[in-house]
Amino acid sequence: MKLDKFDQHILDVLQRDGRINNQDLADQIGLSPSPCLRRVRALEESGLIVGYRALLDAKRLGLTLTALIHISMDKHTPERFSNFEQAVCVLPEVLECLLITGQDADYQLKVSVRDMDHYQSLLLNQITRIEGVTGVHSSFVLRQVVQKTALPLHLSN
């Protein structure tokens, strides 16, 4: 899908405020409401906009510990990777699962838990019990410096 400056501007605004109403969005990008709404619907139907979500405060929910876990697998087969990915997808604590290269690990997980006891339980009772997991290295987030959900868009003038 070819994006013009209006589409890019719509995407930029919606990434910052997914709850904006169509009238306000149209005003911000310089279109009337009807063509603005048609463009938003086209962006949704094309699959470029995949959803709208609320961002929650983990600490206020009691999730005070964030960890990055590097996972090493015993075999590099599609079946082994598929099994691992299916197993971690159902764990609510797993926020991200990335298949990576250039490390001694095959996967990086980002998890959010209440405390160290919760982390230990998740690690020992769930993650290390997944067939094929041979190594686990954990890092704990001390402070989040940047948190973005908006993808960089190159808006042309």
TrEMBL record:
Gene3D superfamilies: 3.30.70.920, Winged helix-like DNA-binding domain superfamily/Winged helix DNA-binding domain. SUPFAM superfamilies: Dimeric alpha+beta barrel, Winged helix' DNA-binding domain. The keyword Cell division does not apply. It comes from the Bacteria. One of its GO terms (cellular component) is cytosol. Residues 3-64 form the HTH asnC-type domain. CDD domains: HTH_ARSR. The keyword Transcription applies. This is Lrp/AsnC family transcriptional regulator. It comes from Rhodoferax aquaticus.
